[in-house]
Amino acid sequence: MAEETDGGPVTLRRSIPAGAERRAAELCWGAFGRKLGPALNPPEKAVPFLAGQLRADRAVCAFAGGELVALAEYRLGGQAPAKGSAAAVLRTYGPLRGLYRLALLALFENRPKRGRLVLASIAVDPGFRGHGIGSLLVEEVSAIAAERGCREIRLDVIDANPRAKALYERLGFATVKTTRTPYLRRLMGFGAVTTMGRSVAPKGIPAR
Fold first, then answer.
1. Residues contacting residue 134 through CB under 8 Å, at least 6 positions apart
2. Which one is predicted more confidently, 92 or 128?
3. Where are the alpha helices (DSSP H) in 106-183?
4. Could you tell me which of 18, 20, 117, 174 has the fewest CB atoms within 10 Å of its CB?
């Protein structure tokens, strides 16, 4: 699906193509390395780990000039969670360090209820930010939610990323709740997580 942004033409694809997993993981690490670093550092381990855990069928990718420049990952209610597992963490980081990392990763776990889609992440190459690609990805994920019969999209955004929160507000997301996590400020770099939501009109039914 070809779309036009103020940065030029972009093609969207509803999956991560075979062979693009490493690039997708690099984008995710570039966007969320600061947040995930305490759980997944060093980068030379984190990127291959992420590449192995991505679910190709639960992502929307954006390509510019044939290059993967952005992606959005999502989770659907009523379906099994993503590929990441305790065994994979322990295998990558070892039993002792792995247990500690599992405890940190559990802080980011967000399993959606049936009828709800969770937008897990959006990662855009720094050279392509500010051109509307993030908005395109959100709307494509919203279309997927409607096709799957979901009634709502939810996402979490940390207080250290006000730019993302502003984007979601412009796209019609409203705050559902804010969870204060001051004990994570020094460890993870953020002290609050805001859950935001936007209703979804089922396919064929116009939004009100």
1. 70, 122, 124, 167
2. 128
3. 133-147, 162-170
4. 18
